Amino acid sequence: MKSLKFFSLALLLSIGFVSCKKSEPAAQQDPKAITLSQKDKEVIASSNDFGISLFAKTAQTETGNLMLSPLSASAALTMLLNGCNNETYDQLKTMLGYAPNLTIGEINQSYRSLISQLLDADEKVQLSIANAIFYRLGFQVKPAFLNTMATDFESQVGGLDFSAPSALTTINQWASDNTNGKIPKVIDEISPQTVMFLMNALYFKGEWTQQFDAANTSLRPFNLEDGSTIQVPTMNEEKVGALKYNGSDYTALEMPYGRKNFSMVLIVPNNNLSDFYQSFDINTWNEITSTFDQMNSWNETMVQLPKFKFDYEKKLNDQLIEMGMVDAFSPMAADLSGISDADIFVSFVKQNTFVEVNEEGTEAAAVTTIGIELTSVGPYFVVDKPFIFAIRERTTNTLLFIGGVTNPVE
Hints:
Blueprint (H helix, E strand, L loop, with lengths): L7 E3 L27 H22 L10 H12 L4 H11 L7 H15 L7 E11 L6 H9 L4 E5 L4 H13 L16 E14 L10 E6 L5 E18 L3 E8 L4 E8 L3 H7 L2 H13 L4 E8 L1 E8 L1 H6 L21 E14 L3 E14 L12 E7 L4 E8 L5
Parallel strand pairs: 2-3
Antiparallel strand pairs: 1-8, 2-4, 4-12, 5-6, 6-7, 6-9, 7-8, 10-11, 11-12, 13-14
Helix pairs in contact: 1-2, 2-3
């Protein structure tokens, strides 16, 4: 359903999933309490601010469906932060929104505390968060960095022969395994310069607190931004326990999953979504969520919601550079000396996501991949496209033959 101009944002983790039977009445369980220190709250607020800014900047350049995972991106970039020093460290820390007084140790501890509690928040939600570091065999990685990744982030750490096809298979299989097969591939090739991948995978599968009756789903009109109308499968339920808020230029709805720790927040602009993207920011998000948090009861609401399913891939270099992560992407300026004494830089930050929303719930997954390359690996030359060849005598520069090859096996 690539043409749908519909999007969803979710509380911290984004959306959830799908079960095969009706859930118990929402009133039987309240959300599980999660204990947070003041520093933990600051880290969450920073992650949300970063995530909304990244989403808004990405949305302003897109014309179709899109989906990002703020938590996955923040986690992967925080892993990278542990390997940065000097200006590269300051830029990345500032972009992620972490307060100047927060040490990297405190940030790591808050991350561990939050993740461990989220994983145990709702027995009706299948939540998994995994981290991994794959590096080129023979590349010298500092033991302190690997130890932090293994302890604070519980990362899988492994050295691979990046020149062998099996390395590509291993990395993509890790992404598939940690997203229940929803994201089977995140990289197509490994360049000769690449020495490391930092990866985070997020998978969330839960059921609506109150499911939609599939018998009520039918084709209903959906209005596109170009003024045309299409018919899409639309779920319909007359009495959904939900929270509703009318903002100045949008209407927002919140529907919970499981025991209501996790929820989906829907935001429908009064006018065009493309115009709304231009002003959407953390202030709008905080206005919506703080209003919902002050409401005391879930009201019975008639909800009509299109079913949708899509995957999305986005290289985020441009957005992150615009947000202030500049030096890390520069071969000349990057300081990743916390990872290795070699001259290395971030070649790309990419996110792959998947979402499916239906009558039973939602299934969503994300993998954030950070590629790290050597600034220089010595001379190399790859001929993988049409080319010219020539034969000459060098002392006289006499040209004997010259030709062009468009298909080497033709």
